[in-house]
Fold this sequence. Notes:
Specifically methylates the N7 position of a guanine in 16S rRNA. The protein has 235 residues and is an alpha/beta fold. 42% of the residues lie in helices and 22% in strands.
Amino acid sequence: MTEAAELPEAPAVAREVFGERFPDAVRYAELLADAGVRRGLIGPREVPRLWERHLLNCAVLSEAIDEGVSVCDVGSGAGLPGIPLALVRPDLTITLLEPLLRRTTFLTEVVELLGLDHVTVVRGRAEEVLGKLPPVHVVTARAVAPLERLAGWGVPLLRPYGEMLALKGDTAEEEVKAASAALSKLGAVSTSVVQVGEGVVDPLSTVVRVEVGESPGGVRFATKKAKAARARRRR
Length: 235
């Protein structure tokens, strides 16, 4: 049996990033290193780099998000980036969307333990909750799927003129090029690669920003609206 890796002490910059919620960030890191590993939500090799590679890498995504908006974290998994984002941004209304029961159970426990009243956990896939959850200003995702597939799940959840923010790695530019046609069909009006976290993480966190126009989701979104309108007229 492999001996569990020890969670390192939080770097000094974490106190600055998480502010008054720093103790809660430490508690979350401890939960990931313990229950998160035991339940198979993260690998044991990730424990020594939980702070830099995971918590801080996700928390700096807040730099790209406007104040007071609604956010849906698609495929939230163990709560990355949703939980770190919630800790640094109490002004946001956040939904953690995750299809697997063992993960939503963990997320619910974390949300309740840390008192994150502005966070809701929803079990389901993006395509299953479309039309059941209110459209959001921002969709976030990390390590869920290639951009083309991720956009097909995330963009239809956006309200008009919303944006999807996907944390990506070195392949970000290539993924944007490969997904250009699909993004256009989904109603994307602008796609860019930005970096956040200067002075906090090294290397910087890479984010693909997909901005949509008046009809996010493209044909599928429009068809859904049309069907709903026809149904209302029949009543």
